[in-house]
Amino acid sequence: MLPQLTLLLALIASSTGTAGPCELVDRATVNALLGAKSSTGMPAGPERDEDSSGMVSYCIFRAGSAALILSQVTFSSAAEAGKATTKELVTSRMDGDGAKITDEPGLGDRAYWAYTTEGAEIVVLKGSVVLGVALGGQLANPPVSYRKALRAAAAAALLKL
Q1: Cα(101)–Cα(145) distance, rounded to whole angstroms?
Q2: What is the pLDDT, as a whole number, of residue 86?
Q3: Model confidence over 115-152: pLDDT tens digits?
Q4: Of 24, 51, 89, 151, whose CA is between 20 and 30 Å from 6?
Q5: Whole-angstrom Cα distance, residue 85 to residue 111?
Q6: Rounded to two decimals, what is the model's pTM?
Q7: Which among 145, 26, 20 is positioned nearest to 71, based on CA atoms?
Q8: How far is it, in rounded angstroms, from Cα 144 to Cα 99?
């Protein structure tokens, strides 16, 4: 009975069309962003996000001292997600003084590009979901140089939401 139940749950999950954060970006992209073969993604959540009141899930990929973090915050409505997705929220999530944050047009309903000397992130609002694609740690290049690659990863991930 257990194998049948597992199969049924897998079919239900796959039929919803929603991927978890570990499935949003393919392994080749993860490895390219990290500059080396990465670990298997470590999922966390869903849990209540204290900053925004949405339900957040994460996936962390590591290669050496670098990390790629995919976050997916789901809200009860697009209006609630829109209210929570602000430059101020993105600023609060960037751990470092001197964070630079700009609008990133052409992704989802609204998007931001943010970086510090320690890391970089693309944050995208799409309907009732806020997607984050963040890169940090000991990177081969300065964080600001990853804008195009993080944007491409976010665009690919949006197709799976």
Answers
A1: 14
A2: 86
A3: 998 899 999 999 999 999 999 999 989 999 999 999 99
A4: 24
A5: 9
A6: 0.84
A7: 20
A8: 11
